Amino acid sequence: MEKIEIELESPTLWRARGMAIDNNCTLDEIIAKAIEKLARENPPKIVY
């Protein structure tokens, strides 16, 4: 597992926290779920 650091505007962070609470998961997990969903909808052209 790798560590990343991101900066989010306050409204985006509050929205992500609310989604995590609604889905009974952590902020890390909700971000991973969002990335997975986007990857299914728009598969990356290059897989690393």
Give structural attributes.
48 residues, globular, mainly alpha
Walk me through this protein's architecture.
- The protein is an all-alpha fold and 48 residues long.
- It contains 2 helices and no strands.
- The radius of gyration is 12 Å and the shape is globular.
Number of strands: 0
Indicate the radius of gyration in whole angstroms.
12 Å
State the end-to-end distance: 14 Å
User: Helix tally?
Assistant: 2
Spans of at least 5 consecutive residues whose pLDDT stays below 50 are: none
- Net shape: globular
| Overall pLDDT | 92
Compile the SSE list and pairings.
Blueprint: H1 10-22, H2 27-41
Helix pairs in contact: 1-2
Concise structural overview:
This protein has 48 residues and is mostly helical.
